[in-house]
């Protein structure tokens, strides 16, 4: 296993083999679940050396566990980073980045449209601790440039915004940020490898809700923070394993390791189905607009072709007409969503099954109406995570649901 040149293999090979070797004790092919809270030492001297970091090893699973370390190595290699911290949730990753990189008196620039819970952390929690936050349109380089202050320490945004599906030029933002001594953190949940590689584009930190595409089976809550060893080590030592205590369970790490081995195949099907469904939705007269970077109608389609390597994923949003047969957009949304049979009403994404939700009343309900309006999250907007079913069946499901509006 150690003879594999991971710098010169394809994504699928990397996803299967990176970070994992047959168990040295019994030869188990699958990484064992080390379901233990603590680890024993042969001598006091050994324990002292491991706690002090003089020799490698494990002491207590909150600070490190063999199953989780295998996962962290794999995710770091998939993203092209030196180190990775696995967390108990996506918000654990967000909190780890914010508390690990910022202190009172610092200033953060955040993209206008981010996940609702992230928005709450930025608008309320961080400001309570003396961190100033400015929201800017990260698709507009000039808006970000104007927002930078002397105390700006971090620019934070999503590679593909949730749920408005706008792309940010990571390379351009990173160049601007580094010129001003500012770090860049990118939430890459919606566009994981092999779609977008933020670190290769110049970002300093990339984070994920591994609950979504990375695990891919809808049975784990998890997150990850990836970057250089220099940036990741203090976050692990002082934040995720201490003040936040967001260490994942070994069993969840095992499940994600399992899920990652089919990631290349899963993502190919998500992308294929996503394009088919997006093209269908664009043809529906009740649909006002479809937000999917793979469509030529998307205003950033040319950027998407380059940055996403023509892998456009399975996540999209679409708006209904403002008035449909006497119904306003929100009423029509509810009627369509409630009529779906294959697609489940659920707020996650990246599952094998197709999921649909209404952002304004679900994932982004914690945001004020004014904040949602600023972010472009309308009442008649539906977010769709296209699953791995046969695309014709997903489309037929939507056809029968739209028929209820007649």
From TrEMBL:
Gene of this entry: mdeA_1
Organism superkingdom: Bacteria
InterPro entries in UniProt: Cys/Met-Metab_PyrdxlP-dep_enz, Cys_met_metab_PP, PyrdxlP-dep_Trfase, PyrdxlP-dep_Trfase_major, PyrdxlP-dep_Trfase_small
**Residues the record lists as N6-(pyridoxal phosphate)lysine modifications:** 212
Q: What's the protein here called?
A: homocysteine desulfhydrase
Which cofactors must be present for this protein to function? pyridoxal 5'-phosphate
UniProt catalytic activity: L-homocysteine + H2O = 2-oxobutanoate + hydrogen sulfide + NH4(+) + H(+); L-methionine + H2O = methanethiol + 2-oxobutanoate + NH4(+)
Q: Name one GO cellular component term.
A: cytoplasm
Q: Which organism is it from?
A: Dorea formicigenerans
Which Gene3D superfamilies does this UniProt record tie to the protein? Answer: Aspartate Aminotransferase, domain 1, Type I PLP-dependent aspartate aminotransferase-like (Major domain)
EC number(s) from the headed UniProt entry: 4.4.1.2
Give the CDD domains listed for this entry: CGS_like
Q: Does the keyword Lyase apply?
A: yes
Q: Which GO terms describe its biological process?
A: methionine biosynthetic process; transsulfuration
GO molecular function, one example? homocysteine desulfhydrase activity
Please report which protein family the annotation says this sequence is part of: Belongs to the trans-sulfuration enzymes family.
Q: What class of enzyme is it?
A: lyase
Keyword list (alphabetical) reads:
Lyase, Pyridoxal phosphate, Transferase
Taxon lineage? Bacteria, Bacillati, Bacillota, Clostridia, Lachnospirales
């Amino acid at each position: 296993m150690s003879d594999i040149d991971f710098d010169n293999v394809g994504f699928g090979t990397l996803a299967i083999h990176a970070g994992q070797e047959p168990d040295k004790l019994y030869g188990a092919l699958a990484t064992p679940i080390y379901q233990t809270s603590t680890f024993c030492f042969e001598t006091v001297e050994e324990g002292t050396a491991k706690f002090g970091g003089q020799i490698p090893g494990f002491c207590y699973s909150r600070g490190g566990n063999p199953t989780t370390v295998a996962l962290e190595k794999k995710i770091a290699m998939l993203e092209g980073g030196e180190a990775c911290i696995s967390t108990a949730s996506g918000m654990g990753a967000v909190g780890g980045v914010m508390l690990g990189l910022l202190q009172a008196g610092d200033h953060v620039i955040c993209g206008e449209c981010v996940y609702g819970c992230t928005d709450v952390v930025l608008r309320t929690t961080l400001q309570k601790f003396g961190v100033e936050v400015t929201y800017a349109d990260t698709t507009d380089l000039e808006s970000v440039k104007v927002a930078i202050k002397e105390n700006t320490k971090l620019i934070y945004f999503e590679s593909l915004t949730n749920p408005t599906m706008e792309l940010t030029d990571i390379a351009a933002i990173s160049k601007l940020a580094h010129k001003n001594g500012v770090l860049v953190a990118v939430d890459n949940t919606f566009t994981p490898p092999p779609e977008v590689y933020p670190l290769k584009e110049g970002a300093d930190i990339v984070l994920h809700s591994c609950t979504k595409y990375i695990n891919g089976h809808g049975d784990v809550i998890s997150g990850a923070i990836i970057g250089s060893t220099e940036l990741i080590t203090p976050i692990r030592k002082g934040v995720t394993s201490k003040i936040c205590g967001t260490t994942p369970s070994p069993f969840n790490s095992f499940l994600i390791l399992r899920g990652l081995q089919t990631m290349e195949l899963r993502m190919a099907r998500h992308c294929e189905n996503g394009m088919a469904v997006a093209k269908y939705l664009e043809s529906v007269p009740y649909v006002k607009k479809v937000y999917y970077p793979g469509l030529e109608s998307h205003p950033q389609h040319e950027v998407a072709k380059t940055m996403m390597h023509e892998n456009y994923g399975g996540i999209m949003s679409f708006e209904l007409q403002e008035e449909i047969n006497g119904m306003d957009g929100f009423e029509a949304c509810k009627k369509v969503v409630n009529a779906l049979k294959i697609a489940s009403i659920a707020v996650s994404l990246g599952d094998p099954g197709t999921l649909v939700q209404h952002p304004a009343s679900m994932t982004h309900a914690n945001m004020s109406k004014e904040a949602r309006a600023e972010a472009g999250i309308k009442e008649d907007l539906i977010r769709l995570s296209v699953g791995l079913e046969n695309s014709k069946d997903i489309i037929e499901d939507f056809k029968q649901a739209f028929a209820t509006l007649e």
